[in-house]
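Q: Convert this sequence to structure tokens.
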Amino acid sequence: MTPSETPPETSSADRTPAGGLVWFDEPAPPRATEQLSRERIVAAALDLADREPTGEITMRALAARLGVRSPMALYRYVGSKDGLADLMADEIYGLIRVRRGEGWRAALDELGRTGWQAVQQHPWFARLAFSRPPLGPHALRLYDDALAELEPLGLDAAARMGFVNTVLGHVLGSGLALLEERAMRARVGLPSDRDLDKAAAPYLERIAAQGGHPHFSRWAADPARLAPAPQSFERVLGWLLDGLATQLAE
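A:
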């Protein structure tokens, strides 16, 4: 998210200090002249981000969606552009779950699968999660549940968080790839794999004719390359969990 407007000067009670965390501030009460609330602003921001191929929105566009004349009115409820980003990210953390009471592998498997579902619905979250601290209530619940399932293993603190972040890294890395591909397709106007293949065909034929990359050219000429990749998200998740299990056995 890239809000472009600079927030106005307000009292400390009306905004989150630069670099501060919105979680320490209570939402401002609605004004009689405004039909705004923190919840309504965040819901509108999520909807806007989902509609944009890059996931980026501006405070001006958000204000227009809410029917507010000035974008500056929004800062009273979310504190700052970072505050809004934190609130948006935490809403998506709330979609990710950890299975409790069935062991560490079931817990992390559920984290990975529900995380992948969340980033497929909201690919922009993958970028936001790398840029903002996961300290909202939903994020803290997620980490606490995951760490609770790992604690009986006797791992040290770094290893426990390493297990969680291995799975989240797969989720967010896959989400970033999805986000960038969606943005590229929108930018070049080639929405389907067939469209991309057709556009690339003349270039691939030229590469094959030059003969400098025979292995790549044989792959490019094979129709089977357009089949769904065998290394699906779920399969790679299984490989990661197998690797973590091997570490525990050593």
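The longest helix spans residues 157-188.
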